Amino acid sequence: MNTRWLLNLVLLILVSVLVLLAVYEPGKKVPIVRPITPLIISDIDRISIKRGDSDIQFRKQATHWIITSPVKTVASQLRINGLLGLAGAHSFASFEVAPEDLKKYAIGKGQITFNDTSISFGDVEEVNKRRYVYVNNKVHLIVDSYYHQLITDSTSFVSSRLLPPDSKIASLGLKPVKQPYLKLQRTADDRWRVLPDSVLASAEQLNQLINTWQTSTALYVSKASAAPSAGTIDISLVSGETLAFQIIKTEADEFILRRPDIKVDYHMLAETRKQLLQLPALENDPAQGSTDSSRDAANK
């Protein structure tokens, strides 16, 4: 081993030690992260938001969350994840306070309950702009990124998916204004029957239309507008659930579907209209599609 090689090895070891010292800073006290609740996120299966005149209730169902009030529909998992983060929010400071002194911190602006643990919101303190919350008989200071979720419109918690996750279409009826009526009906042997009988389509076309409905997601969801309807869509699921949509007439460069039962509009790209309301065109000769009768096409 020559001297130059040995010197390089020593320098390499020295640099590595200095890097480790810089990263781990031995002797430095590691701050303890104290969440405001001891809840385990995976154990939470009920969420309730109280904000005066418009409470919202959620319940976990298998792999997804459901809004149970004020309407019953699938909840946005992204929005639910945002709420669940509050249960494990870091407490920058905490102190006990007598119930009669809670008004000093304006506790009572709203409340979220995870299972049986309630978190009440108060004002924002002036120095670090952290929010006062009251939970388990203590006031905590947390980052102010949760209160806006408490006061947002309930519509924002509705899933942007048109159909519930893991659902399976039993029948699809399309009734757009100024367009022929079309219905796809799943048969007992898991094939598709199409009405009217005069319509001819391949199994590929039928499956593509059904799959588009099964997977479609809106850009965003809003409160239902007063815009008039330009047709209807009726869907029955294998589970027995039925869904009704209205096709909304709009001059804007977008496609809107309304769920009148839950009073929300699904805003979608304009090109989605053709994908959801018409059988897709065949890439090869259209005449080849007639070999698979639309009255009894295989559902692959």
Summarize the structure.
The protein is of the alpha+beta class. It has helices at about 5-25, 75-85, 145-150, 205-215, 270-275, and strands at about 45-50, 55-60, 65-70, 75, 95, 110-115, 115-125, 130-135, 140-145, 170-175, 180-185, 190-195, 220-225, 230-235, 240-250, 255-260, 265-270, 295-300.
Report on this model:
This protein is α+β, with helices and mostly antiparallel strands and 300 residues long. The protein is built from five helices and 18 strands. The strands form two sheets. A nine-stranded antiparallel sheet has the order 4-3-2-1-6-7-8-9-5. Strand 15 (242-248) and strand 16 (254-259) form a beta hairpin. The longest helix has 22 residues, at 3-24. Residues 285-300 have low confidence and may be disordered.
Helical coverage, percent range = 10-25%
Roughly how many Å is the radius of gyration? Answer: 28 Å
The tally of helices reads: 5
**Shape category:** elongated
| DSSP strand content | 25-35%
Number of strands: 18
The structural class is alpha+beta
Main β-sheet description? 9 strands, antiparallel
Biggest sheet strand line-up: 4-3-2-1-6-7-8-9-5
Q: CA-to-CA gap between the ends? A: 70 Å
**Elements, N to C (H/E):** HEEEEHEEEEEHEEEHEEEEEHE
Mean pLDDT: 85
- Low-confidence stretches are 285-300
